[in-house]
Design goal:
Helices cover 43% and strands 14% of the residues. With 249 residues, the protein is α/β, with parallel strands linked by helices. The protein has a single domain, classed as TIM Barrel (Alpha-Beta Barrel), CATH 3.20.20.70. α2 links the parallel β2 and β3. It starts with a strand and ends with a helix. Bound molecules: 1,3-dihydroxyacetonephosphate. 1,3-dihydroxyacetonephosphate binds next to β8.
Length: 249
């Protein structure tokens, strides 16, 4: 049985006081819902403040990105080891905004996945197709290509210490959610591709859904057999909405 997980990706939002307030709310939720994993992903400059605000609670803390290198002369970059030192246990890799706005390739995402694990962080590997790719009928090919790039570099066993998040690009921040059936179809495809290489790992790895999840649609999405929780953007900035999503999980 996979334990449900809900992660709030705050993206580039909030000031320190917001991070403290959101983390306090998240900590209270994590305490109130011991049957699921609740986590928040602040901007890295707010990690320490969020950690302090959530101290003593089971709230998971993560980062939204890490450098593709370990410590050294990489001006402006933040290494996985630095994030772990600030209290992060998880880190997103391959979020669509990094793939499509910042131009991260599958190869860079795979490098970051490897770096995250080397730093002791659990990578949350984000996969998803654009609207054009969906309309061209290539959704499955795209997400499997994105997954394979990581497995080719890190091996199937690396999934024992990772989480996958399916986030269709056309559903992110648009208010347009994938239907539960559309999301389930892709989650099942990913899980069966993993099962072909390792059936046990496939049954254990958590696959979260992300893209316009709200309190009002979360329960239906999370009721799908292969959807193990959510990666929440906008709604994670509204404590009541995030709480409703966590309760649905
Ligand atoms: P929204 O929930 O705002 O659509 O964002 C989803 C997302 O990108 C989470 O990583």
């Amino acid at each position: 049985m996979r334990r449900a997980m809900v992660l709030g990706n705050w993206k580039m939002n909030g000031r320190r006081a917001d991070a403290v307030a959101w983390a306090r709310a998240g900590a209270a939720l994590a305490v109130a819902l011991p049957g699921i994993d609740v986590g928040v992903l602040p901007a890295c400059v707010h990690l320490a403040a969020a950690r302090e605000a959530a101290q003593g609670s089971p709230l998971l803390l993560g980062a939204q990105n890490l450098a593709a290198w370990s410590d050294g002369a990489y001006t402006g970059e933040v290494s996985g080891a630095m994030l772990a030192d600030c209290g992060a246990s998880h880190v997103l890799v391959g979020h669509s905004e990094r793939r499509h706005v910042l131009g991260e390739s599958d190869a860079v995402v795979a490098e970051k996945f490897e770096r995250a694990q080397a730093a002791g962080l659990v990578p949350v590997l984000c996969l998803g197709e654009t609207l054009d790719e969906r309309e061209a009928g290539s959704t499955e090919a795209v997400v499997l290509r994105q997954l394979d790039a990581v497995l080719a570099r890190c091996g199937i066993a690396s999934l024992a210490r990772a989480v996958i998040a399916y986030e269709p690009v056309w559903a992110i921040g648009t208010g347009r959610t994938a239907s539960p059936a559309q999301a389930q179809e892709v989650h099942a495809c990913l899980r069966s591709a993993i099962a072909k290489r390792d059936a046990m790992l496939a049954s254990l790895v958590r696959i979260l859904y992300g893209g316009s999840v709200k309190g009002s649609n979360a329960a239906q999405l999370f009721a799908q057999a292969d959807i193990d929780g959510g990666l929440i953007g906008g709604a994670s900035l509204v404590p009541d909405e995030f709480a409703a999503i966590c309760r649905a999980a």
